[in-house]
Amino acid sequence: MKAKTIIFGLILFGIVSVSMFNFLVTSPKAEEKSPQIASFIQSKVNTGGYTGCSCRSIGNQLIQCDMNFPPGTSRYTVIANTQGVADLFAQVGALASTIYYTGYSGSQKVCEFKYDMFSRTVTRKF
Prior knowledge:
This protein is an alpha+beta fold. It folds into two domains: 1-29; 33-124, GMP Synthetase, Chain A, domain 3 (2-Layer Sandwich). Helix content is 44%, strand content 29%. Strands 1-2-3-4-5 form a five-stranded mixed sheet, with helices on one face. It starts with a helix and ends with a strand. Mean pLDDT is 81; it is low at 4-27.
């Protein structure tokens, strides 16, 4: 009798565990939120006369934000502004995507910063 109860309990536990796993796997993912996050960042950065930020979702929980500055803009200005934007949005809170911020002077790539959604840190990649 006890053996049947234990077996029934294990089977019930297994069914509940599988159900919970399926719920977690099929629940809405951050991938669906990455276009919204990209749009939010772009709308907040493109203010005060600056219109050079373009953000887009590039995959599962990945966002690419390009910071475009006029040709001839100082390398240090591009780096400081790109890092400033990356740091600002890292402080907003836990964003559900990894974000790459790339700074350009004209068409020349100057720097790249990465916000890691797991460690919530910004690191310079280039």
